Amino acid sequence: MHPGMNRSKGFSLVEIMVGVVIGMLAVIIMMQVFALSESRKRTSTGSGDALTGGVMALYAIQRDVRMSGFGIADTQLLGCRLTLPTGITLNPLTAATINSASISGHDANTDTLLVVSGSTNGTTQGDLIANVPTATTYPMQTPTEFVVNDWVVAAPSDPNILNNTARNACGSTLVMGKVTGVAAPTVTVTAGSLMGVGDRLFNLGKAPTIVGYAVRGGNLTTCDFTVTNCQNAANWVAIESNIVSMRAQYGVDTSAPMDGYVDGYQQAVPTVSGNNNCNLARISAVRVALVARSAEFEKTAVTLAEPTWSGSAGAAIDVSSNASWQNYRYKVFETAIPLRNIAWMGKITGC
């Protein structure tokens, strides 16, 4: 046998160690590539979820705001205080209210939105009270406009009457009640406001919408004021996660007298007219911004400046309450929503 044949039958220890090192380096590189790929995948997935969530959340708000004001688009109702069946009092009553006193417990540096609308089987204007009423029985000019289970509100014909002890005017609190019977010409309700001949009874239909929107715990939440006590935080339902901010502004007509066109956006109710009912009638749009946050926490700061939107000058977005806010990615969704039922009122004489 040739003397060198034994040495050619295998690898030396050095060769094996070199191979192991090369293999380990290959594994390390592959794991790094895999980890980077997974990180990018999570970022992309989280960003995609944020986009979807933001779009769906904005659509929900936009749908309700567009229909707001139906059944209450009248200066006899706008600006009044209204007590709901759940015991909550809306003050003032208007199509859409930014930062209503009836909503609390929302995240810091975020706005709330309260949207009010009658249902589709309601009427756009109130019917005249034709004879002397009580607080729960109304002799109506057209009783056929009402059916059992409709929700109604009686309001004074003159919204400027205040503190009249003989009747419940806009200076006092109106009451939302349900129709329990219609025996022409009288409409009977569960609860109402003491009015007089010539005042009006407004029909909000069988299913009026009084819905609040607020950001709570980083989620967009909603509550139906017609069926539950929305001053209890437990009654708010999350409809979209990772919505960390909502800002809103009114689109207002600041012309004197009003011309029916939006002149600018602001958070405060306009004070152009001496009559608050007229001032609320000047609000014919709402501009809303929602900030969606990716669920993926990044190891390094990926957002160096807070998000902005068209209304930042008067309602800046502030997400800094989270100490690690820079380690998330954000997307802002904004839109201007017309209050069609208010806009259709047009120019109002005396406003």
Would you give an account of this structure?
The protein is an alpha+beta fold and 351 residues long. The chain is elongated and about 115 Å long. It has three helices and 17 strands. About 3% of the residues have low confidence. The termini are far apart. The strands form three sheets. Strands 1, 2, 5, 6, 7, 8, 9 and 10 form an eight-stranded mixed beta sheet that branches.
In terms of structural class, how would the helical and strand content be classed?
alpha+beta
Distance from first to last alpha carbon: 117 Å
Low-confidence stretches: 160-168
Please provide the count of β strands: 17
Over all CA atoms, what is the radius of gyration?
30 Å
> Biggest β-sheet, characterized?
8 strands, mixed
Tell me roughly what share of residues is in helical segments: 10-25%
Number of helices: 3
Q: Report the sheet-strand fraction.
A: 25-35%
The global form is elongated
Mean pLDDT: 86
SSE run: HEEEEEEEEEEEEEEEHEEH
Spell out the key features of this protein.
351 residues; alpha+beta; eight-stranded mixed sheet; five-stranded antiparallel sheet; 19% helix
Secondary structure elements and their pairing?
Layout: H1 13-67, E1 81-83, E2 89-90, E3 96-98, E4 113-117, E5 127-128, E6 137-139, E7 151-155, E8 173-183, E9 186-189, E10 200-205, E11 209-216, E12 219-224, E13 237-241, E14 243-252, E15 264-266, H2 276-281, E16 283-293, E17 330-338, H3 340-343
Parallel strand pairs: 1-8
Antiparallel strand pairs: 1-2, 3-4, 4-11, 5-10, 6-9, 7-8, 7-10, 8-9, 11-12, 12-13, 14-15, 14-16, 16-17
